[in-house]
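Table 4 source record.
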Amino acid sequence: MSKKLNIYLAGPRGFCAGVDRAIEMVKEALKKYGQPVYVRHEIVHNKYVVENLKSEGAIFVEELSEIKDKSRPVIFSAHGVPKSVPIEALKLNLIYFDATCPLVSKIHKEVEHFDKKNLPVILIGHRNHPEVIGTMGQTKNKIYLVEVVEDVKKIPINVNEKIAYVTQTTLSVDDTKDIIDEIKNHFNNVVEPKKNDICYATTNRQEAVKQIAGNCDYFLVIGASNSSNSLRLVEVAKNYGAKKSILVEDVESLNLNIFENTNNIGVTASASSPEILVKKLLDKLKNNFDININEAHYKKEDVYFKVPQKLKN
């Protein structure tokens, strides 16, 4: 008789509206212009998605200079780009479309707004993440990057000077709160973003994990190792009571022996992971164990971002 496993399925999980829109934009561009269509940087951080789009005729490059046929269109990834990138695209006479998530664009606009007011800007985020590179590239002025609470006191700005802060959209809500508290304690005059910068999907997926992590011996997060929102979900599961929490990059190669002394497993998918990978994981578990799926009732997300009209045929 096969071993019993309780599966706690987090909800909401998987694709967010910004990821959906970015992938749609590549597909629409392929429909409109035919193959190939270039994409600057991984459109979203997920190997499965990238490989699928490659098979449909997308070519991924890190820099515009790598584009061999300059008559072909290029799409910028959902993470956003520095201002220098569209300027370079114009110089190269490229047809380009910007798939930056509207919630990231909102942060770019905030940086511009603070810039016009001559306010020094602190960015809470992870060094070298494409979203952070894009946000820091919205201004010629220096942006002060803060990764951990300890960085705040190292910022070379007088505590009485008026400052503003913005955050990367895919951070841990808990960690960011600690850093924001430290900024407000350290500086006497802090201008906050009008709305929380951490996106609704990141917040919702972390909340869903918090609800069930305490029930789980093992928590599986389907996602990519270069995806900030995936890595944060692994941390959140650990911090909220899962005995072990791991990132599953490749469902096929997941070693099932790890569940030998386990009865309760949590499962979620990051905002850049498609639901089909959740289905593949559950099918794999079903084929090897007697599984009982517990899925909490949750409110379906109804956020939708339109694909630009000029990409429609």
